[in-house]
Amino acid sequence: MKQINSIKFINSLAEITRYRDPKVIEHNLLKTLMEFDKKSSFHLYQVISLQPAIRLGLSAFASQDNIITTEVTRKQRFSEHFQQAIFDVVDKGEIVSLNQEHSHLQDQIIYPAFNAHNEIFAVLIQTSKHREEDERCLVHGLLQIYCNYLELIAVTNRDKLTGLLNRETLESEITRLLIKNSPPCTSSVPPHQHDKLDTRHYNGKQKDWLCVLDIDHFKDINDNYGHIYGDEILILVSRLLEQSVRDIDKVFRFGGEEFVLIVKASDQQDAQTAFERIRKVIESHRYAKIEKLTVSIGAKQITEENDPREVIIKADTALYYAKHHGRNQVHIYEDLLSAGEICEQAEEFEEGGLNFF
User: Fold this and answer.
1) Which pTM value belongs to this model?
2) Catalytic residues
3) pLDDT > 90: what percent of the chain?
């Protein structure tokens, strides 16, 4: 095995656990791997689904001096022989090597990545001429460090009751979107999994939209049926929200009966359609004890705001309007502003129901 500079390697390894952003962690994982083997290439794939067929999405890759992480996980197609190898990795949870017949060709080594529930959530594919066992063990060990650290972050980033992303992660996510210099994702590939009623257009010009969602009359539920039942409602609504968005969208519990969603849509009408569909999903579900549950939604496109708080405040202004004009409805900040229903004065933001960062 090639000797490496131990200090440089340890410093590079420390980069894996320096940040909390999963995309940065992916980048630093591949950077660390390239520190000791610049002749190999590495591709990190997220496991999209296992049934009815195994589907993988490219998340990051490294070759020579280039390390690239993708903004949106993209589905990949593989040969039948390669698919069988990936199936063996997922099925057995073991490293699988695709050895080439000719010595001058590179092997492909497939490593499984497990979460805390012993489920494979990603695979790492190394393309290399090296066939030494200790090198494979080192790569696999680094991948395990990556998995363990992601698991620790997942615990701290999740709301304890609902399992959704918590409010502490929301500010950093909005900030990331605000400072993102690259144009919106240009991939024309539809998401691999979404609700059948989701009619958003997938024309490759996706923009980020944030909505604040509030359960109507939630205090009455707690008062009439107790906080334990209220918690059950929060958990159920959380699951309905997760099932109603695509895997490139994100759902946060902001606190109490308030949720925040960040979704990608091609335009304002597309976003309105997505939020209306979510509202109808909550309204049409049958609940124990209560006849009907509704939500009010206020939304805002994430554009040129100076800080995350400004985005939330504007979405909350639209929510405040919805709750004071009949509830169980969706309003978008830009529509209300252009119609003269609200104005951009600071005092308009002081009456909303959210506690900010």
Assistant:
1) 0.70
2) 257
3) 46
